[in-house]
Amino acid sequence: MKQTVAVVFGTFAPMHKGHLDLIERAKLACGQVYVVVSGYDKDRGDRIGLDLTKRFQFAQEQFKEDRLVSVCALDETDLPAYPDGWDLWLERLLGLLDLSENQVPVFYVSEEEYAQELHRRGYQAHYSPRKFGISATLIREHPQQYHDYIAPAFLSFFGKESM
């Protein structure tokens, strides 16, 4: 019998309550969750000093006590820019996951177009609209105003000196 494993991917620049909610719902549905932190050189996180390595480290810190969540980093620097390159990107992402032959990835996304692309490629994807009226863009633009929405492990990046 096949066992589903949740996959939640994003740039997480920064991770916020909406992401945490999506990850929690994926965990409740599937048990095990892979959080894939993705990005490329000079992406939106990198432009504010929150490069892929830092985001990956903060995400690992966020889930260090959660045995049901595994965090991976996906460097997209050499891949075609979105929306091109879906097949290469998906191949690389799946290569990061330590799935047994009995495990099937199920994607949890907050972008409807991502769910549609994954469905077209034969994957199960659950679309969940954004919650909390927050986005990483709003946080990057107004970190002090949206401080309470930032995931705890990412708060140190937005310390008092950057607000």
UniProtKB/TrEMBL annotation:
Alphabetized UniProt keyword annotations: Nucleotidyltransferase, Transferase
Record's keyword annotation contains Nucleotidyltransferase: yes
SUPFAM superfamilies: Nucleotidylyl transferase
Domain Cytidyltransferase-like: 8-62
Entry keyword annotation includes Cell membrane: no
Short name of one Pfam family: CTP_transf_like
A Gene Ontology molecular function term of the record: nucleotidyltransferase activity
Protein name, UniProt field: Adenylyltransferase/cytidyltransferase family protein
Source species of the chain: Streptococcus iners subsp. hyiners
